[in-house]
Amino acid sequence: MSRTSRLSTSLLRAAAVTGVAALTLTACGSGSGSDSASSGSGSGSVKVGLITKTDTNPFFVKMKEGAEQAAKENGAQLVTAAGKFDGDNAGQVTAMENMVASGVKGILITPSDSKAIVPAIAKARAKGVLVIALDTPTEPESAVDALFATDNLKAGQLIGEYAKAAMTGKTAKIATLDLAPGVSVGVQRHDGFLKGFGATDKDVVCAQDTGGDQAKGQTAMENCLQKEPDINVVYTINEPAALGAYTALKAKGREKDVLIVSVDGGCTGTRAVKDGKIAATSQQYPLKMAAEGVKAVVTYAKDGKKASGYTDTGVTLITDKAQTGVDSKDTAFGLENCWG
Amino acid sequence: MTATTTPYAELKAPTTARRLLTAPTTGPLVALLLACAFFSFSTDQFLTGGNFSLIVQQVMVVGTLAIGQTLIILTAGIDLSCGAVMAFGSIVIAKMAAQGSLPPLVAIALGIAVCGGFGLVNGLLVQKIPLPPFIVTLGMLNVAFALTHIYSEEQTVTSLPAPLTALGETFPLGHTDITYGSLVTIALFLAFAYALSGTGWGRHVYALGNSQEAARLNGIRTSRLTIGIYSVAGLLYGVAALLLISRTGVGDPQAGQTDNLDSITAVVLGGTSLFGGRGSVLGTFIGVLIVGVFRNGLQLMGVASIYQTLITGVLVILAVTVDQISRKKAR
Hints:
The structure holds two protein chains of two kinds.
Chain A: H1 3-31, H2 33-39, E1 47-52, H3 58-73, E2 77-82, H4 89-101, E3 106-109, H5 118-126, E4 130-134, E5 146-149, H6 152-166, E6 174-178, H7 184-197, E7 204-209, H8 214-227, E8 233-236, H9 239-251, E9 259-264, H10 267-274, E10 280-284, H11 286-303, E11 309-312, E12 315-318, H12 331-337
Parallel strand pairs in A: 1-2, 1-3, 3-4, 4-5, 5-11, 6-7, 6-8, 8-9, 9-10
Antiparallel strand pairs in A: 10-12
Helix pairs in contact in A: 2-3, 3-11, 6-7, 8-9, 9-10, 10-12
Chain B: H1 8-11, H2 16-22, H3 26-42, H4 49-74, H5 82-98, H6 104-128, H7 133-152, H8 162-165, E1 170-173, E2 176-179, H9 180-198, H10 200-210, H11 212-217, H12 222-248, H13 259-269, H14 281-301, H15 306-330
Antiparallel strand pairs in B: 1-2
Helix pairs in contact in B: 3-14, 4-9, 4-12, 4-13, 4-14, 5-6, 5-7, 5-12, 6-7, 6-12, 9-10, 10-12, 13-14, 14-15
């Protein structure tokens, strides 16, 4: 390569970066618009960090909305970050360090890995930052100052009780479409369901992991039907997995006589309950988790009073085919309060 | 430009200033400095010693992987398995020391050796069968990923003995805390920068990347060289595994899932050509820092993380575009 072209290459690289810097400015303009609006100049207001598992899951998008809304109401400034994928612990650690460096008063975190995040949380707390876990507890739970979350065992139990009532007089053949091995949220919902149904793992004829993914849920259900064609109760970890199961059942013409129950209460999922694809779902409230979290950080900044312990942010059974003896609300209520 | 119209000055030996301007790392370096300047103006917290120490600490794992990745890309290869191999190494180290009751140093040596073994197998498959590096390392990515999850039983390994996290400890330097791991990473970068530019081995690596056939005809033992490069890269992934453990304080089976792509990003941003034979380890260091600075700076500014991904993507495309344009001109 000639010297002149090397020189121009270097300059070209420099020009390219200047372009990106401009892009950054644009990105900041659009990205942090709501933040700066809520915080004014940013100086003097309480800075609250929110770290979710990913940027793309509607559940976390809603959580972020709830936090932004609460930050605006409380005159706080919200900064957000997320892992690149579900399970990205290193990404969450990095985000935490950066937030502590930027001077946040408190951090709300949905841990991707309940155990792996603990040392990083300890470091942040050592610097006087209030750390609250949202949605997913840490292991041990005492690693954070407080936990604002759905009681996942209860969420599972509600659909278990519902399924039991709906199956009265019939012999149940249960399939469970689970999350992934060792993930506490999935384990608790699964155990809760069995508890509510009055069954044990021995009564489950087919259990498959889906990662909460619709396509994997469909594959799992297809395989379960191959194994046990007369499955008639399907527990699913969330509504995407439930819709996957529905598609598989429909292909076999079984969609009418199989009971699908789920957890989450997303808007797509709640509409699926309304359409009769899913019999019932336990709805949780990410917006509330975030809003309560922001308020707790603002309180800490003002009075030095730290939130502590577990706050149940509530769960409601949503169905249009209510069963006697099981408390539930209809899909009209569900759609008003759904997320996503 | 023809020789007759070339100004006399052009024919003289390049001045120091000109040499600096035309060095392959200049573009990335200017980019890094511009980014730093931008963030210094945008946020108060960016321009502090503590923050720079934090950035180096945050990039040390991907940085160490990226040294190995640079070596392999210089041979016109690519390694998609580096993050997964590192994750497996980190679980081996963590489990052996925390649950297998092996002395920590033995566990560390074992983990690094296991990673070196993966590199060796990659090198053998690429060189002896031979198979395309993309395919070999894609396969190895899945093998290492699966082994990590099988061996860890999907469990995060906690309660690690102190020597495993020693590199994550800090020592004060003025008003700043520096981690020992950062120093290890910087030392490795310097060592490999010297090995590539100042030794016969380094010249052979570049020759191999430019043309394996020409290198072979010139008496370079290309087969041994290639297998050696993949093995050394593997050992570096083992060191990265130790750094990862020391940074997070746990053995995490989910780790490293995007680190293969992140390391390639750093190499490309550092001006190393994906077609082999051109580039440097120091460039990669700058590339790693560019990503780290953007991630940290945007976070300090309160910009949502999805924009970090957006900007990194644009940067990579720009860097490869520049590489291609400069190649066309060189022809």
